[in-house]
Amino acid sequence: MNAMLLKLKEAGLKLTPQRMAIVREIADDLTHPTAQELFERLRPAFPTMSFATVYNTLDSLSRLGLVASLRLGGAKDGATTRFDPNTTPHHHAVCDACGKVVDLPAAHPTPASHKNEIEMTSGFNVRVEERTYRGLCAGCSKEKSLI
Ligand SMILES: [Zn+2]
Ligand SMILES: [Zn+2]
Fold it and tell me: Within a 10 A sphere around the Cβ of 15, how many other Cβ atoms?
């Protein structure tokens, strides 16, 4: 989190108490929250904070490569972008029912030969590989089996 604050400062952003609270909130949140979720969580402590402040701070963090912005879908509030402080390559599992997102280790990175094949056939220069698995989380599949 301190690294995030330092980088924001270096990028010329003033570290207001609101911005610092937003950074603190996202820095170790592995639930892949949306801007709206973070906004609602912080609102009781910062009643005058605007949604734009939350969104713009997250946007700056993501531009600086300090958080990943993901378009995974499935968020309950209908937001398309979710934020992830884990910026090392990994995969995600998204629950169809409750929208929960779980990190999965990228245990088997694409072999270079496969990457080359993708680049040969599509002309696409692969930067990173992120896979999304969709299905039901542990809680939701248990619920379903009870019905
Ligand atoms: Zn679920
Ligand atoms: Zn993640």
Answer: 12
